[in-house]
Amino acid sequence: MSAGRSADGEGVSERLARWIGAYRPQAGLPDEFLDADGRPRGAWTSLLDRLGTLPEREIMARFVSAERHIRDAGISYRIYGDQREHAWPLGSLPLVIDAPEWRALSEGLVQRAALMEAILADVYGPGRLVADGLLPAAIVAGSPEFLRPLHGVAPPGGRYLKLYAADIGRGADGRWRVLADRTQAPSGLGYALENRMVLTRAFPDLYQDLHVERLPAFFQAFRQALAAGSERSEPRICLLTSGPFSSTYVEQAALARYLGLMLVEGDDLVMQDGCLHVRTVSGLKRADVLWRRIDADYLDPLELNPASRLGIPGVIDALRNGSLVMGNMPGSGMVESGALAAYLPRIARALTGEDLRLESPRTWWCGDPDGLAHVRDHLDGLTLKPAATPTRGAGRDAILAPPTIAAERARVLEALRDRPFDYVGQEPAPLSTMPGWERTDAGLRFVPRPFALRVFAAATPEGWRVLPGGFCRISERPDVDPIEMRLGIRSADVWVLSDTPVDAPTPALQGAPRVRRIAGHLPSRAADGLFWFGRYAERAEAVIRLVLAHLVSVGEAVVTDITGDVRAPAAQRLRAILAEWGAVSAPGLPTAALAQEALIGREIHGSARAHVERARRNAATLRTRLSGEAWRVLADLTDLLALDEGRDFAEAQLLGRAERALSHIAALSGLTQENMSRAAGWHFVDLGRRIERAINTCSFAMSFAGDEASADDLGVMLALCDSQVTYGARYMQGVALEPVRDMVLLDPFNPRSVAFQVEAILRHLDDLPALSADGIPESHRRLAARIRAEFAGCEAADLDGVAMARLESDLERLADAVAGRYFPNGPQGLRPEKLVGLA
């Protein structure tokens, strides 16, 4: 290979020329890649010099690897109002910014964050801005984000804002401008972290060579900022989410995992004795800091929105008495108002003595007569947007651009006449562009794509600290606005290039936590999810084993009549169980059709696929507790059972798929046993599996190990319990009823027997916390002990159909008793303390 040429024979200069030769920014729009003279900017030149040395097939292979990692790690997002998860769409190129420009941008961001903090302190305090005529009272009082119950409440810890974010874009003059302030509950920080992890995994060499600024120091400082002001030296910090159907739940889970926070929902929390507590399986535990990621209006149904089911009744009292530090304080969203932008420049001069370094597009509030007159006179050249924060999910769709205004001029003028204070007029702020890949017959090339950048600043005890990066969204089409994530929008990492080599982050020596070996407390809701994760995984395995037994163990003995119906007794019983469990639509289906429904039927609620998908949904609420390897196996299993949907498969193909699925479940079980810390979370996963396995085995035994069981029946029983090898090594004379019953029900050495499960269940319950202080075992422990006592005094001959049915019923009752004791949605889920003040 000659100098300057890569492995594919194409020279670096030739490749770069092909990539950028047809790159044409849109007229009138600034571009991040090319300057006004059409030359690549310095930061991009550094990236291209190194990227160009890689053959295109290697570049694409690295991005394929990145997409695979995204899928395996379960990184996803939801579009507002859509319950489906979409794989995270990472863009193919990072946005690169050089050090001098980033310093200027950071200074402007710090100034603006401090200004927002000062405005909130005034609005919820002395009100001098209104009194001095710097801010119209109607903008404050008329904002739905101004929360009157918080007026006069000093923020515990001294800060209204723990985290400030701003959506920015480059204006036509080349200067960055703020398109929107984000102070309510800024999102995107977790996705910025995920983007960095994925892209540096794909291009570690570029990341090192370009001296990209690291992110860990910011996150460490932010965690310390959250804890600042709490009453205890080692506070318990919780991240409050609205749950797995939140559009940003995955990034919330990623942040909780990375920062070591407890991920909680409203039902996990309760006020008691003036303090906020987390419901855990060990009882109520004090919460010192709450980083909320729900809108403030939903935070407290007693004092704010009474229809909310996301918040915590009475939590505002914890802010009044100073027992809880919250980021960001409820009511912080008031400064997101579009109307505030019209007055921000003069407020900045009054409070700081400086002009804004990061300005918004020029804005006029139509509630002011002069502002309304200007908007009417210049309507054709302005955008019209809501004065208050737009409805959730509306984003930039709530903005009327000049073409829309021209087409609906009469309606717009009528709205301005009837409710002028609801609108602001603003100079148009078209987004600048950055390069994205486009595939052509000749190979890859760069094309300009509109983008928006969200940047973050954290309020640390040492002052505001800016994340050296950000959350970038890119539109795949020039006419689609990328302000919010939706279909057609991709994300990109943001690389801030340092002037000097960047040292790898080192652990902090000051303020490091003391060594401890306790695993922390498990919220009741998380215990519920872990328990059902285990149960659903075991149900999927049971269905797969039924299918395998039907295709293999019974296949040789199947007899069909003239219609093709299966008439072998064992096969009929297998089909009956599958039908009873809802794994097939009808027991009389042909063998291949029946196996296909039971394995991969999408609309079949009891199919293996349905149970795996439920297990994954439960796992989605537990992203902070499952390893990356477990996620990968679960993703592979989900894909395996959904592959080639709509095709009809032959029995041999279904057999192979069932065997592979069983291997995946075995791998998942192994990872659970080997990778999960032996804390309460592991106990609940394994407890769910043990209870479900014992119940299923009893169900199998009633069908295949009854008093009239045939040799075929007993062979099926051993297959369903994966005990053929063990039985064959112990008994040489062939299958017999009592030895089979003993092995699958009573043998304490067989990890598939019911007795083995019962002993494991008792060990788990002994290791879980007990709330009773009187020395009397709780009801679920008494029930488990009684089941074990029955097994201890039982022989195989005693276990007829009646005894097995009673045992199955007792195990079901035990599962309910565990749920009632530990889980928020059990029989005692609506507890008295949750109803305080609702009468």
UniProtKB/TrEMBL annotation:
Location of the DUF403 domain = 522-823
What region holds the Circularly permuted ATP-grasp type domain? 94-474
From which domain of life does this come?
A: Bacteria
Q: Which InterPro entries match?
A: ATP-dep_Glu-Cys_Ligase-2 (IPR051680), CP_ATPgrasp_2 (IPR025841), DUF403 (IPR007296)
Q: Which PANTHER family match?
A: BLR2978 PROTEIN, BLR5612 PROTEIN
Kindly provide the name given to this protein in its UniProt entry. Answer: Uncharacterized protein
Species whose genome carries this gene: Methylobacterium durans
